[in-house]
Design a protein that fits this description.
Length: 300
């Protein structure tokens, strides 16, 4: 059998973890997480890390394997995931990958554009600029340095802005000039399985998940991370809003409503990203796993 990676994708709160575990158990294989928010051991509740019971049902990799104090880029993940896949495919014909971080999914399945090594002091300076002058200053600088990428990037995502700007500053060339280069072919086949739902259903699931996170201790988890709130890993939905609450800038009710709103916006961006892959097989989130397995059989 040709070595095959089954990539389970879709927006947050749609049910990817459940499907991935059921597929892994059926094919007697292991799971690679491509959810970049779940890499960090200090961030469990706010990133919806699989429960102990779920983790026990199938072997998972890249779940809480790093600290928020460690630098870990998408390039690092590409290298580590491909190395792990080489080892897994020695004993398995099929491996499952699951996650909603589109860039990280693409890094494994398609390959990244490769960039020169950049002085770490540049990123440090850009993070300071973000704290002191706000995201608008990064947006304006990118508009000047790379108007092509400025029109494509998610301008609300400070990670993407800082990554592009550090390349612009470190090389003297536009970030966009490094994109769309030839990448190394993958020694495995990828089958992409996407989960979807009506928008109102998805939004209801997102709102319910946030409520469950709060009941599970999200506020206490975020409070313990206040000393580290400026780290890159914590510039993410679910934590940024609570830091504003802790600083007395927002009420708790408003912070929680912002988490729900920003998570819904994040889900919309995920859907836009994943819809670009015309090879993805889309299923309603209630589709029985047995039906998906049956559909997979002819293409495996």
């Amino acid at each position: 059998m040709e070595k095959t990676l089954i990539s389970v994708i879709g927006p947050t709160a749609i049910g990817k973890t459940k499907l991935a575990i059921e597929l892994a158990r059926h094919f007697d294989t292991e799971i690679i997480s491509s959810d970049s928010r779940q890499f960090y051991k200090e961030m469990g509740i706010g990133t919806a890390v699989p429960s102990r019971e779920e983790l026990a049902m199938a072997k998972h990799h890249f779940i809480q394997h790093k600290s928020i104090h460690e630098a870990y880029s998408v390039g690092d993940f590409e290298r580590d995931a491909l190395s792990l896949l080489d080892r897994l495919f020695e004993k398995k014909d099929i491996v499952i990958m699951v996650g909603g971080s589109g860039l990280y999914v693409d890094a494994v399945t398609k390959g990244l554009n490769h960039f020169p090594k950049i002085d770490k002091d540049i990123r440090t300076g850009l993070n300071r600029q973000l704290r002191e002058k706000g995201i608008e200053s990064l947006q304006e600088e990118l508009r000047t340095k790379d108007p092509v990428y400025y029109k494509k990037v998610d301008l609300a995502n400070p990670h993407r802005l800082i990554r592009a700007l550090e390349v612009c500053i470190g090389t003297g060339l536009p970030y966009s000039s490094f994109l769309n280069k030839e990448t190394d072919p993958r020694p495995f086949k990828t089958i992409s399985i996407g989960l979807t739902s009506e928008r109102e259903t998805l939004y209801h699931r997102i709102n319910k998940r946030v409520d469950m996170m709060v009941d599970g201790g999200l506020i206490e988890e975020a409070r313990g991370l206040i000393p580290y709130q400026n780290l890159n890993a914590l510039q993410t939905v679910g934590y940024r809003e609570l830091f504003n609450y802790f600083k007395g800038e927002w009420s708790l009710d408003f912070a929680l409503s912002e988490i729900k709103k920003n998570t819904r916006r994040f889900a919309k961006r995920q859907i836009t990203w994943f819809k670009k892959n015309e090879q993805t097989h889309w299923y309603g989130y209630k589709t029985p796993t047995l039906q998906i397995i049956t559909d997979l059989d002819p293409v495996l």
